[in-house]
Specification:
Number of domains: 2
Helix content: 25-40%
CATH architecture of the largest domain: 3-Layer(aba) Sandwich
CATH topology of the largest domain: D-Maltodextrin-Binding Protein, domain 2
Order of helices and strands: EHEHEEEHEHEEHHEEH
Strand content: 15-25%
Structural class: alpha+beta
Shape: elongated
Number of helices: 7
Strand order of the largest sheet: 2-1-3-8-4
C-alpha cells in the first residue's frame, strides 16, 4: 500500500517526500509529474490520492487548499534589447511578437530562443526549463498563478490529512492552525531578480554598492541599447 501523488510541471515535491518518509516510513509516497490535462482525470478515477495542481481547476467533488502564488515572467532571447531589464510591463511588450504557445512549455521556450517572439509563463516553469540562450524577467502587471493541493472528498482520511499537514508546515504535534504562510508575488519577484543576478554573475558587490545598487539604496539606472529602446517606447 502507498500514498500516490501527482504534481504539475514547476512543482518540486522533494522536500515533502523527504519529510513524509521520515514521518511515515510505514506508508510509502509515490509521486509522478503529469500533464495538467490529465491530472484531474487520474485523481477522480482513484488512480492517485492527491495532486498539486495549477489553478483554476474544476473543484467539484474535491477538497482544495490554495498554497503559493507563482510570479509571471517574460521569457526573451538573451540578445533581445530588453534582456538586461530588471522588470517589464505589458506596455513595454506592445508591438513585440509572441512565440507560438506549445503544449510542452519546453518547446515554447525553444521557440523563444529561436527568435520567434516572447512568452509569458509562471516563474517556476521558466526555472524548470532554464536555458542559457533565454532570460526570464519579472512582469510587473502580469497575472500570477497559484498552486493548490487537491484530493477527493470521499478520500479525506487521516493519512490524507497528515500529508496536508506536512505540506502546510505542521509538525508532528502541531495543530491544524499552525501552518506556514504562502509566498506573496512581491517576495517571489525579489527571489526571481536575485536568481537572475546570481545566474549572470552579478550577485556580488560592484563599485562599493551591494547587488548592483547605488549608495542611496536605489537600483542603478539601466543604460545601453535596451534602456534606450524602452525609453523610446514610453515616449521619453
Amino acid at each position: 500500500m502507498a500514498l500516490r501523488l501527482d504534481y504539475v510541471a514547476g512543482v518540486s515535491p522533494s522536500k515533502w517526500l523527504r519529510a513524509w518518509g521520515e514521518r511515515r516510513a510505514d506508508l510509502p509516497l509515490e509521486a509522478a509529474r503529469v500533464d495538467e490535462s490529465v491530472q484531474l482525470d487520474r485523481l477522480r478515477s482513484g488512480e492517485v490520492d492527491l495532486a498539486f495542481v495549477r489553478l483554476p481547476v474544476d473543484a467539484d467533488g474535491l477538497h482544495l487548499i490554495p498554497l503559493w502564488e507563482e510570479l509571471a515572467v517574460v521569457v526573451l532571447p538573451k540578445d533581445h534589447a530588453f534582456a538586461e531589464e530588471a522588470e517589464l510591463s505589458l506596455a513595454d511588450l506592445g508591438g513585440e511578437p509572441v512565440a507560438p504557445v506549445q503544449t510542452d512549455p519546453a518547446m515554447t521556450l525553444e521557440l523563444v530562443a529561436a527568435g520567434t517572439g516572447y512568452a509569458i509563463v509562471p516563474h517556476s516553469i521558466a526555472r524548470l526549463h532554464h536555458r542559457r540562450d533565454v532570460v526570464a524577467i519579472p512582469l510587473s502587471d502580469g497575472t500570477s498563478t497559484r498552486i493548490a493541493l487537491v484530493w477527493r472528498v470521499e478520500r479525506d482520511d487521516d493519512d490524507i490529512q497528515e500529508f496536508v499537514g506536512v505540506v502546510r508546515g505542521r509538525g508532528v504535534r502541531s495543530s491544524r492552525g499552525d501552518e506556514a504562510p504562502t509566498m506573496k508575488p512581491a517576495k517571489a519577484a525579489k527571489l526571481a531578480a536575485a536568481e537572475r543576478r546570481a545566474a549572470d554573475g552579478r550577485g556580488g558587490r560592484a563599485g562599493g554598492a551591494k547587488g548592483g545598487k547605488a549608495a542611496s539604496g536605489r537600483a542603478a539606472p539601466r543604460t545601453g541599447q535596451g534602456a534606450k529602446q524602452r525609453h523610446r517606447r514610453r515616449g521619453r
